[in-house]
Design a protein that fits this description.
alpha+beta, six-stranded mixed beta sheet, 3 helices, globular
């Protein structure tokens, strides 16, 4: 399955990797697998999200916020959706990384992923 991911700079000097990427992951992938690919690359994705923010970021999708990644505490807090939830069952089509504490307008984000 292919999920679109839009990355926006989290701090000054971290905008070189901005853009929308296609994440190619197995059809039976779980939410934890998606976050793992986003953080570390893999499954054909050679880029990674730099750990440059001292605070962290929030991961949003077309179904709402799905995780908070804390850079200083080095942990991931899933937002009411278990880590082992299958992406195909959740219906996630796209994801977006936002600096922790900021809350993007999901309806505005949806326009970023329209083809």
């Amino acid at each position: 399955m292919i999920i679109l991911y839009s990355r926006r700079a989290l701090c000054a000097g971290d905008d070189a990797y901005n853009g929308t990427y296609k994440l190619d992951i197995p059809d039976d992938a779980a939410l934890g697998d998606l976050i793992g690919v986003m953080l570390n690359g893999g499954c054909g994705n050679t880029w990674r999200i730099p750990q440059t923010s001292e605070i962290g970021w929030e991961i949003y999708s077309n179904i709402g916020r799905i995780a908070i990644v804390s850079a200083d505490k080095k942990n991931i807090e899933y937002s009411g959706v278990p880590e082992d939830s299958k992406l195909s069952e959740l219906g996630i089509k796209w994801v977006f990384g936002e600096r922790e504490g900021d809350q993007p307008d999901i309806s505005q984000l949806a326009r970023r992923f329209e083809k």
